[in-house]
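Q: Convert this sequence to C-alpha cells.
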Amino acid sequence: MTTLASPARRNFLKSSLVAGAWVLGSSTIPMLDSLAADETSKAGSPLNSPFDFWLSMDGTGVVTAYTTVTNLGQGTHAAIAQIVAEELEMSIANVRIEHAPVVKQFHREWPPGITTFGSAGFNTAMVTIAPACAAARQMLLQAAALQWQVDVKDCMAIQAQVNHAATGRSLPYTALIKAAAMLTPPEKPIIKPPKDWKVLGQSAPRPDIPARVDGSAVFGIDVQRPGMLMAAVLHAPRFGSSLQSVDDNPALAVKGVRKVVHLPNAVAVVAERYWIAHKAVQLLKPVWQDGAHASINTAEMRTSLLRAVAAGDGKLSPRPKKQKEGAAETAMSEASSIIDTSFDVPFLAHATMEPLNATVEVTATGAQVWLSTQSQTDTQNGVAKALGFQPEQVQIYTQHVGGGFGRRLEHDFAIEAALIAKAAGAIVKTIWSRENDMRSGYYRPITAARVQLALDKDYLPMVLRLDTAGPSLLEYTQVTNSPARDGLDWTYIMGWFGSSYKFPLFDTRWTRVDFGVPCSYWRSVGNSQNCFFLEHTLEQAARKAGMDSLEYRRRLLQHNPKALAFVNALAEHAGWSKPLPKGHYRGFAMNGNSALFSAHIVEIAVSKPGQFRLVKITAGINPGIVANPKAVEAQMMGGTLFGLSAALFGEISFKDGQVEQGNFDSYRLVTLAQTPVLDVMVMSTGDKPEGVGEEGPPSIGPAIANALLAASGKPITRLPVTQAGWTLVA
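A:
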C-alpha cells in the first residue's frame, strides 16, 4: 500500500462540521495561531474553516475538493476529480473542484505559496487532496463499523456507501457524515496504489469543457462588478523608458472618460466602457524619457551573443559529481572528430489567447483583485506592497485562465491595475490590448549557444562542451522560485545534465548578456531551446557516423532501458522503418531524463528548395504513471502546436529599441490548414507520475530541423526556420 509522503512541516488532519457540511483538511499550529490573530485573512475562506480544508461533503453527498492548482485549461482539474472519486469510491458526477482561497493556510512549499508551474499539478493534488479523501473514506468506514458494532475490516466502501457483506447492511455516506466528522482523522491516511485504480488511469471527461464550450465559464476578462469602470493603457514604447509628461485634455474631451492616470512607464484612461477608454488613450501623445537600452536592435543582439559564445569565457557550471577538473579539456584534445555548431534563438512571446487583465477595488482597509493568474501568492504580495497594505489585506479571486504558459506567473499587470483603480477611486477593470500584451515584455530569453561534441573513433560522445549566452530571466521574473546559484542562471543548463543520453563528460558555461528586455519563464523554460541545440547536434553526429538517426541514439541509450523502450515503441508507432515517398524526409528528437520521456517524429515533403510541407507529426510521451490518458494526449497536442508555432514563425524582434510585432498578423501561429495529422502515443510504464504540461514544446522544433537537415544536408542554426531560409507551405 502507498502511504502519504512525509510532509516537510508537521501537519495534522482535522475534521469538522461547518454549516452542515463535513470538512476535512490539515493544519499547522503556528499558522493557526497567526490566523486567529488576524481576522482579515479569514475572509477568503468560503466556509470560514479554521484550517486548510481540502475536502467538504454536503448533506446531498456532493463532494467539493479545494485545490491550489490553477485551471489553465490543462485538464488537471479533471484528474483531481478522478482522485476524489477514486479514493472515496463514488461517482465522479458528484465531485466538484474549486480553487482554494488565497490564504496562508493553503500555502505549499513547492511550488511556493499558491502557484501553478513546473507540471506539478497532479503531484500536488496527490499529497494534499488524495490523503484527505483517503482519510475520509477510512473515517466513513469506521463510523459505519461503530454503528453496526462490527469489525471495520469487514466493511467496504463502494458507490458512495458503506456495505457490510456478512449482514447485508449498507448506509449511504450522507447518513454517516455527522458520525464520521466526530472521529479523529487517521494520522497517516493510506491512499490507493496505482494497481488498485479503477477511476484514475481512465480517460474520464473533463468537467470544465461544457462551460468552456457554451461560454458560461468566467475568465478574468469576463468579470463584472457593480459600478465597474474600464481602463486602457498606453505603455512606453521602449523598455526602460519613463513618462516625462502628457497632455490629458484630448482624452478627457471624449464622452464617457472619467480620468487619466499617470504611471511611471505608462498612461491609462479610465472610462465607462472599454472601447471608449481604448479610443481615448490613443489620442494621447506622451513624452517619454528613454533609458539605457533605447536603441537596441535584434541584429546587434545576435552579433553580441554569437561573439560571446565564440569567446567561450562564460561562467563555468558546476561539474557533475565524480567529474575531475580538467577531464573535459583532456578529452576534447584527444577526440577523433568534433561537431562544432553555433545556434541562436529569439525572444518569444507567450501570446495567450486571453490578453492580460485584472479587475481591482481598493478601499481604505484593503483591496480585492479578480484576475486570471497562475501565481496567486506572489500577486497578492506584489499588489499589497504597491498599495501599502499587508498581504492579508489583499483578496485574490482566481478566475478561469485563457492561456498562461508562464506569462501569468508575472503580476506586473495586476499591480498596474491596482494603481489605476486606486487613482480612479472606483472598481476598475484594466485590459491590455493585444499590442500592449505583445510589446510589454516578459519574453523567453534570446539565446545563443555553441555546442562542441567531441567523438571517439566509433563516433560516440567523449565530451560535450556548451557555451551559452543571453539575459537572465531569473533577474527579471517576479515569481518566487529557486534563485540563481552562485551567479549562474540555472535555466541555461536545463536538459543538459540528467539527459536520457549518455555523455561521459560535460563542460557548460554561460555568459550574461543583458539588453534591458524583461524575460520570464516560458513553457518548458530552458528546455525549449536546449533540446534544439542538443538534438540537432546529435543529428549531425549521426550523419557523420553514417548511421540512421534512431540507430545512433539507441547507442547512447544503452544505459537507460526505459528511454530505449520508449524510443523503440515510438518508432514502431510512427512506422519509422517504412520507406518514404520521393521528396519526403523524417526527423526525430527527444526530451527526457531517467523517468520522463517525450519525443516527436516529423515527416515533411519538400516540393522545391527552401519550401516544405508538414505531412505527419507523431508525438510520444511516457510520464511514468498516467492519471487520464485523453487529458495527457490533449496536453501533448497543445504543447506540440505551441512549440510548432514557435519553431516555424515565433520571434519577438527589435528595431530602434521597439518591438516590431504587435498582433497575430506579425506574430504568427500555425493555422489549421498548415497543421498535419497529429498522432499521439501515450505510454505508462513508470513507478510514479511525472509532469506533462512542459512536454511538447521542446522536441517538435528540433524534429523539424532534423527533417530539414535530412532534406538539404545543411544544419539549421537559427530559429524560427523561416529565418533559416525555409518556408512552410500548406
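Residues 1-10, 28-51 have pLDDT under 50 and may be disordered.
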